[in-house]
Every structure is written in structure tokens, then in C-alpha cells.
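Is this the right way to post C-alpha cells for a design question? Let me know if I should format differently. Anyway, here goes:
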């Protein structure tokens, strides 16, 4: 496997990662939900401790 240095864009990759991270942080802060597979599974399976409180 080789890396194509001519098309390597670490700046855009970093920017995209920061935007995704910021969106996940906003979702947790304002909605109380975790973005990603853990949040999806929690919504599907539920937690009995949350319902008891």
C-alpha cells in the first residue's frame, strides 16, 4: 500500500474531524444523547436504571 502524497490533505481532514467532534459535543450538551453506535444501541435496548429514576 502506498500513500499518494500529491493528494494528501491533512488540513481538510483535521477540519472535518473537528467539525464532527464539535457536532457530537453539541449533541451531548444540548440533547443529552451520545452520537454514534453506543447512543443508537442505548436507544434500542434502553437502560432499566434510567426508567427507574
Amino acid at each position: 500500500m502506498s500513500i499518494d502524497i500529491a493528494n494528501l490533505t491533512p488540513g481538510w481532514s483535521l477540519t472535518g474531524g473537528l467539525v464532527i467532534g464539535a457536532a457530537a459535543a453539541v449533541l451531548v450538551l444540548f440533547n443529552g444523547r451520545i452520537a454514534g453506535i453506543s447512543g443508537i444501541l442505548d436507544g434500542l435496548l434502553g437502560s432499566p436504571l434510567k426508567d427507574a429514576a
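Format looks fine. Someone answered above. Worth noting: The mean pLDDT is 80. The first helix runs from residue 10 to 31.
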